Every structure is written in C-alpha cells, then in structure tokens.
C-alpha cells in the first residue's frame, strides 16, 4: 500500500514537472518564455481545463459556457467552439484589456463589454464542484462508520481515525475555546469550512486533473467563505455585541454628536471578513505562483543556455519539491487559520459578560 | 487587476456548491462524528469515574477485612485466654473437690475401720470372756478339789474385783 502511494506521488511529481513545460512550449513559440503569462494562465480562471499539450495537440476538457446577455438572452454552448473560430454568436474571448481571458460581447459603440450574467462552468467552478463531491463522499464515508457503532466500541483507526482526529482537533482546539458555551451551533459550518479549504488546498497541490486548479487562491471562493462567516457572526450576534458596535462603552463625546466610535466599530465589522478573504486568497495564490516560477526557471535558463539550463533543472526541481512540502504545510495552516479566525469572530459576537476583563 | 475582482458567476456557483455541501454535511456528516466523539468521551469519563469509585470501594473493603481480621484475632486471644482461665479454674475446682471427697472418704473409712476394730475387739473380748469362763470352769472344777487353794483363789478374785470396782470409780 505504502509502495503504491510512493509510486503515485512520484508519478504526480513527474507530471507536475511536465505541466508547465507544455504550457511554456505554447508560449515559447514566440521565442522567449513568458513567465508572467504562464503563471497567470494557471492561477486565473478559464473556460476550459487545459491538461497537457502533446506536440501541437492540446489536451483539454471543454467546459460549458452559460451566458445571459440583454440582447441575446440565454446562451449555452461548449467552450470548444472557440478552438475553430474566434467568435461565436457574437461572443468571443477577450485577448487584451480589462476583460482579458473572459467572454465578452460588443456593445453598440463597439466596446467589449461583459454579458449581464456569466455563470459558465469554468475550470474553478468545476474544481469547486469536484472538491465538494469529494468532500461530501469523504465525510459521509466517515460518518457511516459511526452509524452502527456504540460509544463503548473501539475507537476508529485508519482513515476514519484520521478524520476523527482532525474533527476533534478543530472542535477542541479552535471552536470550543474561541466561541464558548454556544459552540455547538457553529460546529458544522466551521468544520465544513475547514475541510473544504483544506481539501481544496490539497487538491490544488496535485498537478494534474482533477487537482491543480487554483480554487482557494481565487478571490471569489474566499469571498463566499468569508461571507458565510460574516453571516454567522452578524446573524447570531447577541444584544451585547450590537450594543458594543452602536453604543460602545466609551466617553459620550466619542458617540455624540459625531458617531466616531460606532463608525469605527461598524468599519471593523466589515474589515474582519475582508481580512479573511484576502489572507486565504493571497496565501494560496502566492504558493501556486512561487511554485510555477521555480518550474519556469528551468525554461528560462534553457532558453539561454543548455548547460546552465540542465544545472538549473536540478536546482529548480529541488526547490519545487521543497515548495511542495511547504505548501502542504500551508494548505493545513491556512485552513486552520481561517477556521480559527472565524471562530474568534463568532466568539466576539457573543460576549458572555460585559467588561469582566 | 482581474485577479482581485471576484467573478460573479464563480461566486454564484461557489455559493451553490458550498451551500449544498454545508447542508448535506450539517444533516448527515459532522453531527454523527462529533456526537459520537462526545458520547465516547462521556463514556470514558464515566468509566474512569467508576473505576476510581471501585478502587476506593476495594480499598475500603480491604480495610474492612483487615479490621475484621484484627478483631477476630483479638477475639481469638481473648477466648484462648478465657479458656485457659476456665480450664485452670476447673482443674483447681476439681482438685479441691477431689481432695474434699478424698478427705471425706478417708474419714468415712477411718470411721468404719474404727467401728470394725471396735466390733472385732468386742467380739474378741466376748470370746475371751467365754474362753476365760470355760477355762475358769475347767480350772475351777479341778482346783475346787482342794479347799486351801480354793480359799486362796476366792480371796484373790475378791481382791481383783474390788480393784476393778475401785478403778471403775
């Protein structure tokens, strides 16, 4: 079993080293390696899932495009139509400007504008869905183990044991101490968030389909997660919490006539989820970018000189392996930090007794 | 920078996917795990508490048994001592009684012997008297033939009887 895992890991590593190679051969047609383009192509969303390029042939998964525009109504088509033609039904993928890489249509004056609604199943969306399915399967598989067991049965081992350890760790180390006595209501959400982020981070480290997508390094994903925390904080905040925002315990002139402190407090309410959004997004994005940069180093130096390039290959590979391990750590830490901060914010929204410290 | 702008479509799908995941896991996933962990924790706590109590009880019982043992030993020594005392007493009493009895029997025997002796003496005396009489008869029959000696002898008898009479006074 262990041997097989090692083999799979090796195989993945080999592919990992390969993926950007294919991506770069695409770019190197013009002469030099465009590292920025490679990295941005990877970390940004796209309408198809590019897996590899063999020779001149691109192996990629075409994904459905779902668009609603005011002039043309609903449009659903496969993204593969853009392989043959640049424009389809008035839509095309913008190649430059504000909407680079996105599907645009032309307005009356000839400017490129985004259609009103673009809910295409993009690479990130598909990845979110796959990760969600995987997460549900993993957790339900784990939960099934408990179904026919009594509390005095033997504790689980193996995979279920690992899951139980993680769940217990999140509940006992993050949720319970930070939220306090009402922690049970938030446990499912915080656990879901933790495992969703953790799994997405790990999947992002696997270089080939269905992994490798930059899910938690996408600001839309982290925004949704932070919004959920924001809702959990503010929807269930108690009286004390709202009193501290709108009528905090400070000298009166700070509140009337100019509501200085309430404004600052209110600002804080929105800064918290913003901090959550940006922290997770930036950390994961940076991890992906750094790893790709190391790999790209090989092709940059190869373009300069074969010997330097060969030497650099070894160095880059070592660095990439090192970074992969670091990212494994980061994958866990970021999920941990997100859950911890969410619990802290939720805990702050339910002060139990005022001014005890 | 398009990297920093959240895409509406992605937000939408993320909301849907995460919402569904949350719903499913909230219903069927995590509560099963956390409640089981909690229950197991409670079970272990209970078991630990019970074990502690049992240990305490055991220690108690040990103490009690030792107490009982000690008491029993004390009782034993007491009983032994008492038994020894009783035995000594009994022996003493028996001895005393035996001595008394022996003395009584001895006295009785002595008395009987005395009686026998007296009886025998009386009989001997009677026989001696009879014999004396018969001898005296024979002697008298023979001696009375001579008056001289008769007279001497009578005198002598009178003296003797007189002496006896004197002595009896």
Describe the structure.
The complex is a heterodimer of chains A (357) and B (169). Chain A has 10 helices and 9 strands. Chain A is 61% helix and 11% strand. Chain B is an all-alpha fold and 169 residues long. Helix content of chain B is 93%, strand content 0%. Chain B contains 2 helices and no strands. Chain B has helices at 8-143, 147-168. The termini of chain B are far apart. Classes of the chains: A alpha+beta (357), B mainly alpha (169). Chains A and B meet through strand 9, helix 4, helix 5, helix 6 and helix 7 of A and helix 1 of B.
What are the defining features of this structure?
heterodimer, A: 357 residues, alpha+beta, three-stranded antiparallel β-sheet, 10 helices, 11% strand, B: 169 residues, mainly alpha, 2 helices
Structural class of chain A: alpha+beta
| Quaternary structure state of the chains depicted | heterodimer
Uncertain ranges of chain A = 15-30
Total strand segments of chain B: 0
**Strand order, largest beta sheet of chain A:** 5-6-7-8
What is the average of the pLDDT values of chain A?
82
User: Domains counted in the coordinates of chain B: how many?
Assistant: 1
End-to-end C-alpha gap of chain A: 54 Å
Please summarize the sheet with the most strands of chain B. Answer: none
Number of helices of chain A: 10
Q: State Rg of chain A.
A: 24 Å
SSE string of chain A: HHEEEEHEEEEEHHHHHHH
Low-confidence stretches of chain B: none
Name the overall outline of chain A: globular
Report helical residue fraction of chain A. Answer: 55-70%
The tally of helices of chain B reads 2
> Would you tell me the structural class of the helices and strands of chain B?
mainly alpha
Please provide a brief summary of the model.
The complex is a heterodimer of chains A (357) and B (169). By secondary structure, chain A is of the alpha+beta class. Chain A is 61% helix and 11% strand.
């Amino acid at each position: 079993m262990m041997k097989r895992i090692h083999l799979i890991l090796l195989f993945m590593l080999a592919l990992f080293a390969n993926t950007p190679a294919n991506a770069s051969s695409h770019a190197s047609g013009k002469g030099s390696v465009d590292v920025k383009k490679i990295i941005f192509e990877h970390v940004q969303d796209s309408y198809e899932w590019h897996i590899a390029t063999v020779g001149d042939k691109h192996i990629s998964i075409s994904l459905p495009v779902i668009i609603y525009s005011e002039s043309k109504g609903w449009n659903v088509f496969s993204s593969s139509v853009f392989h043959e033609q640049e424009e389809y039904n008035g839509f095309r993928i913008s190649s430059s400007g504000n909407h680079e890489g996105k599907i645009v249509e032309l307005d009356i004056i000839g400017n490129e504008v985004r259609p009103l609604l673009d809910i295409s199943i993009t690479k990130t969306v598909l990845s979110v869905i796959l990760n969600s399915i995987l997460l549900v399967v993993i957790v339900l598989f784990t939960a099934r183990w408990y179904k026919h067991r009594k509390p005095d049965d033997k504790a689980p081992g193996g995979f279920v044991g690992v899951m139980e350890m993680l769940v217990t760790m999140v509940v006992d180390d993050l949720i319970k101490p930070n939220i306090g006595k009402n922690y049970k209501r938030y446990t499912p959400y915080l656990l879901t968030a933790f495992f969703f982020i953790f799994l997405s981070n790990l999947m992002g480290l696997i270089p080939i389909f269905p992994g490798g997508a930059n899910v938690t390094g996408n600001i839309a994903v982290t925004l949704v997660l932070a919004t959920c925390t924001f809702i959990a904080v503010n929807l269930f905040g108690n009286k004390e919490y709202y009193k501290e925002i709108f009528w905090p315990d400070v000298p009166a002139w700070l509140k009337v006539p100019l509501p200085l402190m309430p404004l600052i407090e209110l600002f804080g309410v929105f800064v918290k989820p913003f901090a959550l959004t940006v922290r997770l997004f930036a950390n994961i994005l940076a991890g992906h970018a750094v790893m790709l940069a190391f790999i790209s180093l090989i092709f940059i130096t190869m373009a300069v000189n074969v010997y330097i390039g060969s030497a650099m290959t070894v160095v880059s590979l070592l660095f990439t392996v090192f970074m992969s391990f670091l990212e494994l750590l980061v994958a866990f830490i970021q999920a941990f930090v997100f859950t911890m901060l969410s619990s802290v914010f939720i805990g702050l929204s339910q002060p139990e007794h005022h001014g005890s410290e | 920078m398009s990297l920093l702008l959240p895409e509406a479509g992605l937000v939408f799908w993320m909301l849907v996917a995460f919402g569904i995941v949350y719903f499913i896991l909230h219903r069927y996933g995590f509560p099963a795990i956390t409640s089981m962990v909690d229950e197991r924790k409670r079970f272990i706590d209970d078991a630990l508490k019970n074990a502690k109590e049992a240990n305490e009880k055991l220690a108690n019982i040990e103490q009690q048994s030792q107490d009982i043992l000690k008491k029993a030993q004390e009782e034993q020594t007491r009983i032994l001592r008492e038994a020894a005392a009783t035995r000594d007493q009994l022996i003493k009493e028996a001895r005393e009684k035996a001595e008394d009895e022996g003395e009584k029997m001895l006295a009785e025997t002595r008395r009987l012997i005395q009686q026998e002796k007296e009886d025998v003496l009386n009989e001997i005396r009677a026989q001696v008297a009879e014999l004396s009489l018969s001898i005296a008869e024979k002697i008298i029959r023979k001696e009375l033939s001579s008056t001289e000696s008769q007279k001497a002898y009578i005198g002598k008898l009178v003296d003797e009887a007189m002496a006896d009479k004197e002595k009896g006074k």
